Amino acid sequence: MAAPETAPILIIGQSGQLAQALVAGAAAAGRPVVAMGRHEVDLADRARLARAVERVGPSAVINAGAYTRVDAAESEREAAYALNADGPGVLADLCAGAGVPIVHVSTDCVFDGLKAGAYTEEDAPNPESVYGQSKLAGERAVAERAERHMIARVSWVFSAYAGSFVKIMLTLAQDRDTLRVVADQFGHPTHADDVAAGLFTMVDAACAPGFEDWGTYHLAGDTATHRAGQAERVLAASARLGGPTAAVEPISTADFGAAAPRPANACLDARRARTRFGLQFGDWETQTDATVAALLRSF
Length: 299
What we know:
By secondary structure, the protein is an alpha/beta fold. Helix content is 42%, strand content 16%. The protein has ten helices and twelve strands. Strand 4 (102-107), helix 4 and strand 5 form a beta-alpha-beta unit. Helix 2 (46-56) packs parallel to helix 3. The longest helix has 22 residues, at 77-98. It is globular. The relative contact order is 0.16.
């Protein structure tokens, strides 16, 4: 069903997984959107952000843009904060001034990963990486500067778009017999198309008269796995389809030696979003198989 005729939704971001899923979902639904990448609008440039909002005259803004190089952020703190904290704060100011809602995409990395179960929106953030700290600062800036806001935390997003985990595993398997993948980090893999559909549903609700359920929501699937298990699913699907494959060697996070800490538990409880907006998230294993099949057509 096509979306009703309205002013376009402004999407900040164009080349990332989620931005591409948003554009594809909008096209399929006949929904008017304008997606702007860094060549058109820079989260670190207030003037360009202001011109973009004024020019588009959006019904709502989805901020899917961010500094996402988690390890590099440890040594590029200023750049991470400029894009993940300062820019979203400015964007929230502009949305408040224009009288339109903002949906800001955040991350499971705002948590330290020490909780035994899935994180709810009531759990206190405690990010351990610069990336997570900058994203939390962005959440707070948006919440403080735009009354009509929603924070959408996502976790382990995958797709056939951009440099997804699935694509990385397939690419590495072309040249390696064994892939060393951490087995002590757990999350809820969630397809980008499901997240995009959820964000549009939230925007529709936010634009409806009388909406008051502003705040933070988790958008994630139900089933947990570890990174090595996710990799095994990718490579098994690839093997069945005649694509590249490799053995998976489960290792610890300490053995992998990444510059930035990741939460050992990145599981997000999405019951609030499911209940309020009726969101649905597919089975990650079935969606992984379909994603591998789509990617192999371009290998």
